[in-house]
Amino acid sequence: AQTVTQSQPEMSVQEAETVTLSCTYDTSESDYYLFWYKQPPSRQMILVIRQEAYKQQNATENRFSVNFQKAAKSFSLKISDSQLGDAAMYFCAQTGTASKLTFGTGTRLQVTL
Amino acid sequence: DGGITQSPKYLFRKEGQNVTLSCEQNLNHDAMYWYRQDPGQGLRLIYYSQIVNDFQKGDIAEGYSVSREKKESFPLTVTSAQKNPTAFYLCASSIKKVSIVANEQFFGPGTRLTVL
User: Fold this and answer.
1) Contacts of A62 (CB under 8 A, 6+ apart)
2) Preceding amide of B8 cis, omega within 30
3) Rounded distance, CA A97 to CA B1, Å?
């Protein structure tokens, strides 16, 4: 069975600073994808970034980047130059067979002035 | 505009009643999914369908039923057998590619179900 663990229920960052959200996962699949989704107060799930497990290069999307450590089964999200609009719940997710997503319990990110 | 719609946004149900949540997509996606979200928990998979007229149980299918008669539609029925149905329900869809095990899922805006 796949499991995804987010050990930080809440994080806080000052505007313009950098924050890293942690995620670990466990799977027996050899081919899988990892995702970070953002859920703002509207509760709409928005894809932030994704990583293909067979790619060694860490994915980057503007201010968002990941640190993918396959051997350690770690997939952290780094948000640079944090903005007030980044405040949201962030979910780490993994998918394998049948494209089913397994989600972590989420990290609530607060952005302060 | 292409996207996923869910209706209604808020739904109230009396105990013992069945209720159906609507999910429609015009993205021409083959696969569709239903998730449940409870406070303090991540999303949990209820049912999913990779092709019309076929669907599979997810991790928490008990007390729920689905149908997939059309590619665009994947309604979820919450039956009276579901012991704790109050939750936020999210529908998602994705392209199904045979050679790739995982694809990005696009989510609808969700339905908040409250049992009175």
Assistant:
1) none
2) yes
3) 30
Calculated CA dihedral for residues B34, B47, A55, A72, nearest 10 degrees: 100
Amino acid letter for position B59: D
Q: Do B110 and A97 touch (CB under 8 A)?
A: no
Q: Is B60 near chain A, with CB under 8 Å?
A: no
* Residue B91 phi, psi dihedral angles, 5° rounding: -105, 145
pLDDT at residue number B58: 92
**For A97, which residue in chain B has the nearest alpha carbon?**
B101
CB contact under 8 A, B50 and A98: yes
Q: Do A45 and B90 touch (CB under 8 A)?
A: yes
Q: Residue B33 — φ and ψ, nearest 5°? A: -140, 150
Q: Which residues does chain A have within 8 Å of residue B107's beta carbon, measured at their own beta carbons? A: 44-46
* Residues whose CB is less than 8 angstroms from the CB of residue A71 and which lie 6 or more positions away in sequence, other chains included: none
Contact (Cβ atoms closer than 8 angstroms) between residue B33 and residue B50? no
Give residue-wise pLDDT tens across range A65-80. 999 999 999 999 999 9
Q: Does the distance separating the beta carbons of B109 and A44 come in below 8 Å?
A: yes
Residue-wise pLDDT tens digits, A16-43: 999 999 999 998 887 888 999 999 999 9
